[in-house]
Structures are given as structure tokens and as C-alpha cells.
Amino acid sequence: MHTMQPDDRSDGSVAHADRLFQEGLSLHREGRLLEARSLYERALEVQRRHFGATHMSGVIAHQLGDAERARDLIGRAIDIDGSVAAAHCNLGNALCDLAEHTAALACYERSISLNPGDPVAHTNRGNLLQDLGQYAAAVASYDGALALKPDDAAAHRGRGVSLDHLRHHTEAILSYDRALALQPGDADAHNARGNAFRSLGDLAAASASYDRAIALEPLRADFQHNRGAVLDDLGDFPKAIECFAEALRLDPGYPYLPGMLLYLKRRICDWQDDAGSLQRLTDAIERHAPVASPFSAAVLIDSPALQLKAAQRWIGDRHPERPDVPGATPCACGPRMRIGYFSADFHDHATAYLMAELFETHDRTRFEVFGFSFGPCRDDAMGRRLRAAFDGFVDVRTMSDQEAALLARKMGIDIALDLKGFTTGNRVDIFAHRAAPVQVNYLGFPGTTGAGYMDYVIADRVLIPDREREYYSEKVVCLPHSYQVNDRRRPISDKIFSREELALPSSGFVFCCFNNNYKINAGTYDGWMRILARVDGSVLWLLEDNALAAANLRKEAHRRGIDPGRLVFAQRVPLADHLARHRAADLFLDTAPYNAHTTARAALWCGLPVLTLGGTTFAGRVTSSLLSALDLPELITATSQGYEALAVRLATHPEALAELGKKLAANRLTQPLFDTPLFTRHLEDAFTHMNERRLLGLEPAHIIVTPGAKPN
Q1: Residue 79, domain extent
Q2: Is residue 4 pLDDT above 80, yes or no?
């Protein structure tokens, strides 16, 4: 017996299906989704290929969170009638939820081609392009929507977010303001507006915007996080900690916040539950959970294997390689290799004080050297010196990451060095877009990036022993002495400070540590207090990073039986004066597992011996690297007990300390650490090896630079 298909039924059946569909549509408009779905299903029992009932069943499936069923039903509707623009747009929405982005974009394009006057399709396409990182195209799509519907608050907000990513923050704020004029209760727009103000450095306006967002939606963890971040910027650490803790209460799985919260507590030397928090963090990183940024991991975690896991997770989540821009390909070199240094710190900054002479001493017969700046443009003496040192200086602050990468390629940069890594003000995504055929991680971040698009990391055999290369995603460039470059022109003030001026006692041994306070953990501090207890009349001279840290350190000293008055806190002063006041100290005590870096270099340059505990990570071996390059291995200890014993011995045996001081004074200008021209030649040898491999079509490989003859 022949079974009649629903489409072959009488006109009466078709009319009945249409009536059921219209009744369902009315209920759907009222938000009665389950009742509407039932009527659509009854319509489909009468007429299996009813476009409207099939399409709207798919729409309801999407509204109920079943994107796969929505995709199947709406796709079936399009098979029935592919001329309806809204169906293609709705299919695109379902495909977006399923992360089928290419297919979703094609659906939005098809919808717009069928009905160019639909602002919704333009807005949805803009949202998808934004998610794909195609921000300029997203802005154009939002503009298309707003040309059709100027009062579309969502399009104004989306446009602002894309403009923020393009670093057009002022224009983004105008878009947020338009969105909020239309929809004052849009908490997301207030939050995004706060992000834009924070990017512009207007922290008060940012804080006010976050406050408004939280007032509208107090249970949003992301709003609490952002408010905490700006309070951190403002130096209000207790309130920042409260916000981060509240964000974690609202969302215990909020990505990367546990590490940030523990780091922020370290900034104020609050060590309550420090050990427990650290263990939980370590266990989570071992499980590849997103709990700590690479910087937090470098500060907190004493394991190169775990630091690699943390970095790889962060890169995968936040800074993946950007496939939307073709990669750079090997090309014939010009007469000189073009080196690009990328940083936010081409001004009066610690990184600049290390690198300035390197830029000046590059061999201009073989290399052209370019600075790509994405930090503040300050008219200070160091900024002027650096701009004069480069063959070309490019300000990319207002360029998007993609635009900056493309500019570097157009300029023919052969090797690009990231001098920031994951430190404040970084632009990692410039490298995710592949700024040059060879990309190098150097100096700014003491560890691996975990990024496949970073080809090399500059190090030495002390920092990264051969057996530990597996913990670095980059190939290791091993320089013959220390990885750290130094500027011999760094000025030391002629000012002679009295102990009274520095609030130091008139007599007694002065231990010092001018590291940032977050590098001081409970274990290091325990050792310092034991040292003070064993050296009568000694004091510990520390940098006061913030008043709360100083108060907590005094409290922790008292808990360990040490008079808090034996702690002296130095305020920040101009660099030349800071270097000069090192003369008032007797011995610099390093921190572990995150060492002194620039601060150790400063102490050694000033003739102050630095005592360190050899670590297990890049960040924990920097001082050992510096001391090795000065031929002062006797200041590198292997255990905490050895560290404390040597500190006490040097403090109680002035002749031993004097001998070390003499050796440091003799080695300072004869050993390799401060020989900038020699360092430059070695780095240039590394560049040559990198580029030769690139031109031969070879993959990056570990490079060992052998010492050459010292230049005249």
C-alpha cells in the first residue's frame, strides 16, 4: 500500500499545519517555549516538510541550550527553503555555539546576501569576527548594522570592544557611551568601558565604571576581578584582594585568579595560608588547570616543569598562534641583518638601563637595529638616548597587534626579540601574529613562554643546564658567560650618604636586599631572621615597596623573636642616588626561589657582594649566572643552611668579607659580566646562527655560542 508523504496531503492538511504553526508562533512570542514547541511538533506530524515549524523548532532548541539539535533542525529547514535569510542567520548562531566558526561565518554572509537590510545578521557577524580576532572586519560589520539601526545598543557595545582590541580606546569609549545612552542598565557595557579607561591609564574612571557594573550585576565574578585589577593598579592591595577573593567565591573556577590572588598577597608579605595555597596551586598546575599566569608561576612555583605547564596553558587560552595572518617565510637577506627589539620600556626603566649600550654597540656593518615601542613615550634622558641608539624607532602603541606584526614584516625584520614576555605592558600577540621569521624570548621574562611561535630563548649554561632544556618550549641559545647584558654607562651619584640620612644605625653590620617585596617568602624570611639572631647588632635594610608590606614584615620579625627595629626600609629615590647608597651596605642577601635580577646587577656594579642560593628555575638562577660571569662562585650556595652559615661568617669575619670585596672590585671590569662589547659580539653570533638556519630552511635548534677573542 502506498504511504502518502505529508507534502502530498490535501490543502486542508496544509492549512491545519499552518494554523498549528501560527498558534505555536504566538506562544513562542510570549516566551512559552515548551508549549510552542509542542504545537510546532504537531504541525510537523501533519506536514513533515513545513519550513516554519522546522525552523522555529530549531530556534527553540537553541534557546533551550541544545545547539546540536538547533543546527540539525535549522539545517533541515534550509533544505526545505534556502531563500529565507533569517534561517541562515539562526543557523550561524547555533554553529557559533558549536565552535564551527568557518561554517557560521558563511551562514551570516549568506543571510546578509539574501537580506542586506537585516541589522541582526550584521551584528552577529561582527560578534563572530570579534571572537576570531578579526577586529577591523568586526568594526566594519558593526558599522553596517548601525547604518541600518542606529539605536542598536548591542552593536555599539560590540563595536567598542573591537576598537579596544585595535587599541583605539578613546573611540571605543564613545561607542560604549552611545550604547549606555540607549541602554543605561547594560552592565557589560559599563565593564567594557572600565577596561578602555584602564588601558588609557585613567584608573579613577575605570574604577567608577566597574563599580557601576557591579551595582547592576553584583554576582558577576568577571566584574569583581576587573575591579580588583584596577585597585591593584591604584595600590589599594587590601581592597584588590577582597575583590579577587569575592570573584573566586562567586566562581571558584575563575581562570588564573588563584595565582594572581596569592601573588598579590605576596606583594604585601601576607603569608597566611601561604603554604596551603601554594600546594593547591601546584596540584592544579600539575593537572593542567588554568590557575596561574606564567608570571605568577615564575614567582610562586619552584619547578621548571610546572612553569612550562602553566605557560603552555596560558598561551593556549589567551595568546594562541593567529592563523588568520600568513606566516613569514624565509627570504634572501639584505646587505645587513635587521633586528627588531620590541618593548614597552624604552625610557627610564630597569630594562633600558641594562640594554642601552647593547643597542649602541651593535656592529652596524652587519646589523640594522630597530626599536618597536608600545609603552609610554617619555621625554627623559634614557628615552632620548635609546631613540638615538636605534637605526629606526617605531611607535606602535596605537597599532593593533596584527598591524604591528605586519609592519615589522614589511620592514623586513629578520629577527624579532620580545623584551617583555609576560611582564606588565606586554604585547605577546604581536608575536602570535609572527612579526618576523625568527622570534626570540629575551630578558624581560625569566622563563619559558610555552609558545610554539617563539623560536629561541636567550640563556646560558647556569640558567638552563642542558639536562633541563626539555622544560622550555623554545630552543635554547647558550651564551658563553651570563645571559644578562649590562650598560657600563649607568651613573652612580657622587653623593656620600651618612648612615643617619639613610635611617641606618651608626654601627653594626648592614645586610640588605633591595628586591621587590613579592620576592620575599616565608622561607627566605625565616633564614634572614635566623641570620640576624646570630649576628649581634646587625640590621636588615629592605626596599619599602608599600607600607602594608613593611608593616607585615615588622610583624613577622616580632613573631620570630627579632626586634622589628632591626628592619630599616628604604624609600625609592632617583637611580643614581639609589646606586650610591649601596655603599652603606655590607652584604646583599638574595631571595629564593625568585632571585634578584636587575637589583643584583646594580649591587655588583656598585661593588656590593651578593650572596645567593642556587635555584632550580631560570628565575632562581639569575644571580648565580651573574656571579659565575664575575668569577665569584664562592658567593653561590647550594643549601639554605649553607646560605645562612656563609652570611653569618662574612658578617663576623670582616677580613673574609674584605677579600671578597677586593676580588669583586678587581673582577668588575676584567671579567665578562660588564664587558658589553664582548656580550654584543656573542649575541650577534647567536643571531647569525639563527638566521643561517632560517635561510637554509632548517627548523630552530639549540645554539651554543663559543667565546671569541675579546674585541679591542
Answers
A1: 6-200
A2: no
